[in-house]
Amino acid sequence: MRIIIAVIMMLSASFTAQAQCTGTTISVFDITTDSATISWPAPGAVAGYEYEVLPSSSPQPVTGTPITTLSIRVGGLLSGQAYKAWHRTYCGGGQYSTWTSLSFSAAPCGIPSTINITNVRGDSADIAWTEVNPGANYQYAVDTFSTTPSAGIAINANSTRIKGLKAGKTYYVFVRTVCGSVYSAWSSSNFFTNWTTNISQTNIQSSVYVYPNPVSDYLYVHMAAPAGNILIRDTKGTILKYAEAHKHSTAIDVSMLPAGYYIVSLTTADDVKHFKILKH
């Protein structure tokens, strides 16, 4: 009887320890015909993890490949083969969480190949991308940082209008396809929001003068502060001219610039001002 009770207590302790070692969900993305990335969130302070990627018909693994990071790129898959990704948490002391799994196929989740950005204004823009297949679901993200996002906004269409942008900034657009519980790689592009500065014959702002406007050959910049930087950009944000203002009035030769609108940015130690000019 004592032996039976001891065994029951040992099994109970084992089940309790396993219950306290928490598992997490698993994600599979960037799937190609021969590889995929699997990842999982950290459940807390743990000793590590184990993973395996096996054909879908294989039973649950007994042990897995040890790893301490939160993702792994798995190669050597067979095109069209159905797989199941397995993952469990190792909490130390020989204690593991239960296995979690996710099924997927080694066939690419189509990547939106082209992102088109139109109707760009100071506070909005329209984005559209190549449809992977009719009725496909997507995620998109728009940010001033070029870092690939971890997730995006779900949408069941291949176009949308982005609002609430700020003028004179570079934005990065990311789009990926949602294939059930897995995702394609991100497709990306970027754009520059238009400036909203008014155009006048002579721009005057806090003792700063940019003239003449429109201009044909030389643009003159008068600054109350004798030191600063002068940048001339096109409406997409590309820097075309740079000058250092070491005196109150600086002349810049713009005769070789194509006709059109440009943005003149004046930077001093205390302020940054922007003017829109027209080049004839």
Quickly list its features.
280 residues; Immunoglobulin-like; 3 domains; five-stranded antiparallel β-sheet; 24 strands
Overview of this protein structure:
With 280 residues, this protein is mainly beta. Helices cover 7% and strands 47% of the residues. It has 1 helix and 24 strands. Strands 1, 2, 5, 11, 12, 14, 15 and 16 form an 8-stranded mixed beta sheet that branches. It starts with a helix and ends with a strand. Mean pLDDT is 83; it is low at 3-19 and 197-205.
| Main sheet summary | 8 strands, mixed
Total number of domains: 3
Order of helices and strands: HEEEEEEEEEEEEEEEEEEEEEEEE
Low-pLDDT runs of 5+ residues are 3-19, 197-205
The beta-strand count equals: 24
Query: What separation lies between the terminal Cα atoms?
Result: 101 Å
Structural class: mainly beta
CATH class of the largest domain: Mainly Beta
Q: Which percent bin holds the helix content?
A: under 10%
Kindly report the name of the CATH homologous superfamily of the largest domain: Immunoglobulins
Shape: elongated
CATH topology of the largest domain: Immunoglobulin-like
The Rg value, from CA coordinates, equals 29 Å
Oligomerization: single chain
